[in-house]
Structure formats: structure tokens, C-alpha cells
Amino acid sequence: MLYIIYQEDHPARASLRAAHREAHFAYLEQHRSILVLGGALLAEDGATRTGSVLIINVPDLAAAEAFSRDEPFRKAGLFRDVKISRMRRGQWNPAAAPKSAEGS
Q1: pLDDT tens, position by position, 10-53
Q2: Full DSSP string of the chain
Q3: What is the dihedral of CA 86, 89, 90, 93, to 10 degrees?
Q4: d(C-alpha 95, C-alpha 54), whole Å
């Protein structure tokens, strides 16, 4: 089942992102078999990070919550809000995705 994890950064804790970046990416790599899509939420300036979104494929909500709970950014207290919701894949058009991580 697909779950989307929507995480908004706590503005006063932005320095935690840099401090736990390597652990965050190692965690995602460790769980690459369930990670469908992940990326940073950005302010309109395209540079300021405001959070992140992860879409994972796991058996149930308990597994999604466990994955989120153990994620290094969350464990460090970076997020002011985390929402986890089951979702259904509707439209699927990978060809429309940008060619670069920055959206171009």
C-alpha cells in the first residue's frame, strides 16, 4: 500500500538538516526497496527548504509510522508537523517528470 509522508520543517531548527543529512540519505538508501519517491519541499525561491515528502510502499499504516518514526531528520526533531496518509496511485506519467532534481 502506498503512504505519503508530508513533513514540514520547524523553522527554528533548520541547522538540524545539515547535521543529519548523511544519516537521512543512508536511511533512505537502506529502505530503497520501499521508497517510491522522495524530495524536499521548497519555498518559492527554489532554494529554501521547508520540509520533505516521501511516498513509500509498505503493508500498512503501522509500517509507515515506524519508517517515519525512525527517519533521522524526524528523530532529531527537525519537523514541526508530520502527516501520514494512505494514498492510491492514480495518474502515473513518469515521462512528465523533470529531467533534473531541480525541475528542469
Answers
A1: 988 888 999 999 999 999 999 999 999 999 999 999 889 999 99
A2: -EEEEEEEE-GGGTHHHHHHHHHHHHHHHHTTTTEEEEEEEE-TTSSSEEEEEEEEE-SSHHHHHHHHHH-HHHHHT-EEEEEEEEE------GGGS-SSTT--
A3: 140
A4: 20
The residue behind cell 520540509 is: 51
CA distance 53 to 83: 10
Strand partners, 3: 56, 86
Rounded (5°) CA angle 58-74-86? 30
Q: What is the pLDDT of residues 53-71, one digit of tens each?
A: 999 999 999 999 999 999 9
Longest dimension (CA), the chain: 37
CB 84 within 8 A of CB 5: yes
Tell me which residue has cell 492514480: 90
